[in-house]
Design goal:
About 45% of the residues lie in helices and about 20% in strands. The protein has about 325 residues and is of the alpha/beta class. The chain has 3 domains: about 45 residues, no CATH class; about 130 residues, Response regulator (Rossmann fold, 3-Layer(aba) Sandwich), CATH 3.40.50; about 130 residues, Rossmann fold, CATH 3.40.50.2300. It has a 5-stranded parallel β-sheet, sandwiched between helices. The longest helix is centred in the last third of the chain and has 33 residues. It starts with 6 loop residues before the first helix and ends with a helix.
């Protein structure tokens, strides 16, 4: 009978908790021997310590080619996912329930969420519904996970894919590759706008034109995710809470890695001559929300994204040439 593939891994985790280990020795044609080694005097790690290790501060986890958030109420399953996904090159954050998952999703804006269906309080379907009804979190791909999962229900509710827990080890890497999780596209446009309806409108407009969009509700959120998202272009509002557009541009210009990212301002602010003179030094163009033409905005964006992509490719080719030359 086919199992979940998790039994040995869970046994290993329990053995490690009390200071032991388990391993297998196999010989083709003869079979396998499983060896469990336990200390005479076990040192049991308290559950609270394990939980604190499992729910480590997510800022320390952001080392990888893509961020994946795992939401599952089983601590051992979370740890197994963290271990497996880290080996695949992803940065991994974990949450024990839906509420903690929402908090981390807002903070990290992950490239993907792996969501267990069977959880107490809010089950996975309820969490998925809330995620897909939030304009900032809705674009994040969600992979639902359960035994004998109802895939039709998952797809109807907006899940990117559905994974049977019995096939996790064999299918998850394939699914992540299939949906390009963690791949950094060259045409990402960052929309920094605090008004939800305006942000949704711009996102729909740009995605319809074939561009990928990352949404940020203020300058501070945008700065937090610049390094990870690597946008080819930023569309920026000026009047925002927490950090407005002017302060954001100042931070952008003070960072050598970010100062070359083209910025297009789209605002309802009545800009003074002094402010316009300052903007002219650092932004490509400025549009007023009440009278801009969609065609003009899209044309400008496509040209700037194309130029940025060409520049990135040239820089990459130069780096490759230099590496070969050094050899």
């Amino acid at each position: 009978y086919g199992g979940t593939g998790l039994g040995l891994a869970i046994t290993k985790k329990f053995a490690q908790i009390i200071g032991g280990t388990i391993w297998a020795e196999s010989e083709f044609g003869y079979g396998s021997t499983f060896v469990l080694s336990l200390p005479v005097h076990a040192k049991i790690t308290p559950d609270t310590q394990l939980e604190s290790e499992a729910e480590a501060e997510p800022d320390t986890l952001l080392k990888g080619d893509g961020i994946i958030l795992v939401i599952d109420d089983d601590m051992i399953i979370r740890e197994l996912f963290k271990e497996d996904l880290s080996k695949l090159g992803y940065a991994v954050a974990v949450a024990a329930d839906g509420n903690q998952g929402f908090e981390l999703a807002y903070k990290l804006r992950p490239d993907c969420i792996i969501l267990d269906v069977n959880m107490p309080e809010k089950d996975g379907w309820e969490v998925l519904s809330i995620l897909k009804n939030d304009s900032l979190l809705a674009p994040i791909p969600v992979i639902m996970m359960s035994m004998n999962i109802d895939k039709q229900k998952g797809y109807a509710m907006g899940a990117t894919d559905c994974l049977d827990k019995t096939m996790v080890h064999s299918q998850l890497p394939i699914i992540l590759k299939k949906h390009h999780i963690g791949d950094h596209a060259d045409d990402v446009v960052m929309v920094v706008e605090d008004e939800e309806e305006q942000r949704k409108f711009l996102t729909m407009l740009l995605e319809y034109k074939g561009l990928q969009v990352f949404q940020a509700e203020n300058g501070q959120v945008a700065l937090t995710h610049l390094e990870h998202k690597k946008p080819a272009l930023i569309i920026l509002d000026l009047n925002m809470p927490v950090m407005d557009g002017f302060e954001f541009i100042e931070h952008l210009q003070n960072n050598d890695k970010w100062c070359s990212i083209p910025v297009v301002v789209l605002t309802s602010r009545r800009i003074s001559a002094e402010e316009q003179a300052c903007l002219n030094q650092h932004v490509e163009t400025t549009f007023q929300k009440e009278d801009f033409q969609q065609e003009d905005l899209i044309l400008q964006i496509h040209q700037l994204v194309s130029n940025a992509t060409t520049h990135k490719q040239s820089a990459s080719d130069n780096d490759l040439f230099n590496d070969v030359h050094d050899l």
